[in-house]
Amino acid sequence: xxxxxxxxxxxxxxSLPELMEWINRVLNKRKFEVVFVDDGSKDESWSVIEKLQxxxxxxxxxxxxxxxxxxxxxxxxxxxxxxxxxxxxxxxDLQDSPDEILVMEKLLHEGGYDLISGWKKKRHxxxxxxxxxxxxxxxxxxxxxxxLNDFNCGLKCYKNNVxxxxxxxxxxxxxIPLLAKAAGFDKIGEHVVSHKARKxxxxxFGLERFTxxxxxxxxxxxxxxxxxxxxxxxxxxxxxxxxxSSGLFTAIAGYxxxxxxxxxxxxxxxxxxxxxxxxxxxxxxxxxxLAGFIAEMVSRNSPARKEYRISEQIN
Length: 315
What we know:
By secondary structure, the chain is an alpha/beta fold. It has helices spanning 16-26, 45-55, 71-81, 101-110, 127-144, 160-165, 176-182, 208-226, 231-261, 273-300, and strands at residues 3-9, 32-38, 60-64, 86-89, 115-119, 156-159, 188-192.
């Protein structure tokens, strides 16, 4: 199989026949499969997929969730199912153009990339969506070190071994390039793609995607850097907090002893606000250190602790 196209969808019955006909027209001379993942749609999407499977024998696969799990879950199950040498992801709303598929596949092979991410340079979206998206992309570039202009473009292509090596969960479909880089696939390219106006239905994502996206970005950044060595973060923060607070406590107690020794007037320790600050800091530092220690023990006993991707091997 040359190409697999993974298409997660939710209530997109109207657009599916047109999308499949478009894909088939572009790839009619290639061996390809389209994996539709119905994310618990309430409309006729699954019935449409069943009809498409009959109309395009050997070219359509379908997965149907019992309820709505989200786009990340759809992509994960689609990746597990895909068997093509090159795997594409695409939205079902006709805003991504199948005409880009062969161009991106050629760029993937000729450029030696692990994945190519689409860039909707000219978007047909309202300002309420484009402005937050630009801020989100800027922040993701700064955190990840990956020089992409559009991390959340639905149109991407990957070598098959990339999608088999990553795990997409939560709202992390926005950060697949980061997940790929963390798995050792750092040859990431970008291609400007056309962005069509939505023809049917309405968007399935609300404003919560921005808050959820930022939280997931912090999660990925932490796991990438400290997932195998949590003590390096929590232990260091705990130790520094404890030492600074202990120093402050020692200074307060030392001044009190000095005042008593030389019969100087001084406040009771419990009347000094800095005493409570130092005491709180010592407790917090101890808790951070213990949290790092426990996290390190959990990490060292994880089955994934010894999993490392090997790109080449000579026996």
